[in-house]
Design brief:
Layout: H1 6-15, E1 25-28, H2 33-41, E2 46-49, H3 54-65
Parallel strand pairs: 1-2
């Protein structure tokens, strides 16, 4: 992103009351443990490392949003 990085965007989301509880998924080519840890501390739902297949991506997104999706009976 040209002006701010994903960590800054995540900080903004988490500090905005009506956005604070939405699931946030980080999609990155960085697999640096410190970045992943920092993101988790800030409250991400999932950290996905590229490259990955579409099937893997869908699985990861599903896992991230599953707690927020109402159960269908």
């Amino acid at each position: 992103m040209p002006k701010v990085d994903g960590i800054e965007v995540l900080k903004i989301i988490r500090s905005t009351p009506h956005l604070a509880d939405i699931p946030v998924i980080v999609l990155s080519h960085f697999s640096i443990e410190a970045e992943i840890h920092r993101s988790r501390i800030l409250g991400i739902s999932q950290y996905i490392i590229k490259p990955l297949t579409l099937k893997e991506f869908i699985k990861e997104v599903h896992q991230a949003v599953e707690p927020f999706v109402p159960c269908q009976a």
